[in-house]
Specification:
Strand order of the largest sheet: 3-2-1-4-5-6-7
Bound molecules: NADP nicotinamide-adenine-dinucleotide phosphate
Radius of gyration: 18 Å
CATH superfamily: NAD(P)-binding Rossmann-like Domain
Number of strands: 7
Shape: globular
Structural class: alpha/beta
CATH class: Alpha Beta
Strand content: 5-15%
Order of helices and strands: EHEHEHEHEHHEHHE
């Protein structure tokens, strides 16, 4: 059987994140040409490149850097099949103590960068070759057109708020609204835009969450577990594959708790 993502060209931001690493490894294993961005984790990026994926250092808070990266990337690949906005920043504080810089930095990385990077890479996403394979329903594939896909990684915070993280919650709420809007705008260009809420994962983002809150999260979870980045990455592999061709404007939740 052919690899699930054979020859797909994929770009994921924050490839060095817990979830990003799992995705890059799986996507490369499934035959994709994988590109990823990273910020500070140079050693992790070098290690990930052993998979055949290629990493690019990029500060997503810097619009000019995004523009330069996009120009370079447009020269590098002939088209882009999947773009995943996964990188995210946090700078937690209650509103009385949150500085304007903390607000702006988080909004820049988590919300402005997905907008700007998508806009700058649109020409690549719109350049479609008619190629693809559906492993699940080979006989049902009558339309030879395989849509480009954009995914945003969102959070429960964006729907129900998160005390001490109004910047992060606002960025993720905005990202959900942007995802649904782009699904409407880009549908006519045969592009799918969806969001995934990976649920509470143990990663550098949640490393400083106090033990008491971790335990509360576990207690509220019907499954009494944290989300597994490997499982979320597997789901993203499925969504990136040609088996998913008609779903757009959705938010998929790995959140085992009610909102
Ligand atoms: N962890 C959770 O419980 C949880 C829950 C809901 C949603 N999510 C979402 O899921 C996604 C992955 O989360 P994670 O926990 O796996 O992340 P993580 O391990 O904390 O990693 C964050 C990533 O963002 C990158 N990054 C941070 N600031 C950046 C900047 N200024 N420019 C470019 N890249 C920057 C980091 O790059 P370097 O490492 O190279 O510095 C890293 O790759 C995020 O969108 C997050 O919001 C996570």
């Amino acid at each position: 059987m052919e690899p699930f993502l054979k020859d797909k060209i994929i770009l994921i931001t924050g490839g060095t994140s817990r979830l990003g690493q799992a995705f890059v490894r799986k996507a490369a294993h499934q035959g994709a040409r994988v590109f990823f961005t990273y910020f500070k984790a140079t050693a992790v990026a070098k290690d990930l490149e052993q998979t055949g994926a290629q990493g690019f250092p990029l500060d997503l808070a810097d619009s000019q850097a995004i523009e330069c990266f996009a120009a370079l990337f447009r020269r590098k690949v002939e088209q882009l099949d999947v773009l995943i906005h996964n990188a995210a920043a946090t700078a937690d504080a209650l509103i009385e103590k949150m500085s304007e810089k903390e607000w702006d930095d988080v909004l820049r990385v988590n919300l402005k960068a997905p907008f700007y990077l998508t806009q700058k890479l649109l020409p690549l996403l719109m350049r479609r070759e008619k190629k693809g394979v559906s492993h699940h329903f080979p006989k049902m594939v009558t339309d030879p057109f395989f849509p480009a896909k954009v995914f945003t990684m969102v959070s429960r915070a964006g729907l129900s708020g998160l005390a001490g993280a109004s910047n992060y919650a606002a960025s993720k709420g905005g990202l959900i609204a942007m995802t649904k809007t782009l699904a409407k705008e880009l549908g006519r260009k045969k592009m799918l835009v969806n969001a995934v809420n990976p649920g509470f994962m143990q990663s550098s983002m949640t490393a400083s969450v106090p033990e008491k809150i971790l335990q509360k999260n576990l207690e509220e979870s019907p499954l009494k577990t944290f989300s597994d980045p490997e499982e979320v990455a597997e789901f993203l592999i499925f969504l990136s594959s040609d088996s998913m061709r008609q779903v757009t404007g959705q938010v998929f939740h790995f959140e085992p708790r009610p909102f």
